[in-house]
Amino acid sequence: MTIPSDASSFAELNDYISRLFQYRDSSLLLTINESFSKFYLDILLKNNWKLYFGDIENYEGLTDSNKKIITIKRNLDPYSRDKAICHELIHAQRGENLDDLNRGIQGLRNNAIVEWNARRIRASPTLLSLIWKTFDIPPRIYDRASLLATKELVKPQLLFPSLERDYNFTLMD
Ligand SMILES: [Zn+2]
Fold first, then answer.
1. 3-state secondary structure at position 88
2. Separation of 157 CA from ligand 1 center, angstroms?
3. pLDDT tens track for 30-46
4. Which domain holds residue 166?
């Protein structure tokens, strides 16, 4: 069966992952079920992981688990940017490196699992806003999840309604 890439649709990824489940043992299930939560973000932060935007070719994001650096390609559209960030954060959490795609079938399969998880994290307003906050990423609205994520960001400021208005205005600018 064809292994989906980072550019595949979620439907393709989901189809692949669900078919993979039917044939694989429980160790893979465990990998897939790892929850990506505040807990992991805290660990990455405490371990001094840094996230930068830079000029990179061929990839939308790179993870260097030895140097603890994630690099995201500059000037991606907001959805691709957030998707790439989520993808690389999962590689980081798993201690993986940018060469994961070069490890044959196993590498490609692993990357599809990472991407499948990344899509689900990206679609979670709570996790997306947490990631923006944690790594100081400028919020952008481009779909329902990102809209709700900006609302989660400004939650503590609801005591000051004018702030929220100004903030949304800035975001839509
Ligand atoms: Zn990857």
1. helix
2. 36
3. 444 445 566 677 777 77
4. 10-172
